[in-house]
């Protein structure tokens, strides 16, 4: 039977790691285990026995005759600081990788040092630095959040993109300033930045979704088609967890002069959580009247049909009632949805098909 050494490793923060390794193991093997368990890179680990710093090549069996060992783990960042201030970009990038792996363990001084790197002339370093902040700084960290927001104006679009990616990690949930800053990027010329902004907005807004929905709905009036499309994309993501005020705002935009906007708003409407409220359904029904332009009536009918297909009972009733609408296109749209419901075995839809004049 192979002999083992039981090792207890403690940090100054009170963390404790118990491992059992073969007695022929070395200090380097312990560091690999620490890196695996705690995600602390080996190059910043210093293992100490009493007051003695242990070299990687030292065998564990030579340190304990009884097969039990108690060690302290100290983070040594001097080499990281030196590399981070090096004129060689590859050393700086390696140092940023190390700090990102350390995450919150890196500490306040490390966060401040990484923020300094955001002024580097190398855009790759700036991008890597802002990305590292997302791992190193706790949510709501003022200097890190301010630095990431400034990166939204960086000359390099990849830096701006990475800033958008980390803002949901740094911003307090529902932070109005961050929400507005991210929403503004929905009008960016670069499609990747716009898409990332749409995805980030849903996370950053969180409890302040109604405010975010209002901002995005205003962007549906933007002069540029690409801005309206990205606003619609963000709207659908936001609508998934929005409240009744969002539904009311969406109803007003179903009358938009742009067919593209009407369709996008309809899709966002369908993303709203739960069943459609009586008030929202009433607003949709009003859009089916002959006073509305034909395209508006059709998209309203499509929206009611999709809500019905989701199983919304009130929407199903409205849909069946619209099967005798005076507008041929509305009737055709409604008929398609009723057929879809009938295939699902819905009794109201089956009855409407069997007795269309009822």
From TrEMBL:
A GO MF label: oxidoreductase activity
Ubiquitin-like domain span: 5-80
InterPro entries: ARM-like, ARM-type_fold, PBS_lyase_HEAT, Ubiquitin-like_dom, Ubiquitin-like_domsf
Superkingdom in the source lineage: Eukaryota
Protein name: Ubiquitin-like domain-containing protein
Lineage, top ranks: Eukaryota, Sar, Alveolata, Dinophyceae, Gonyaulacales
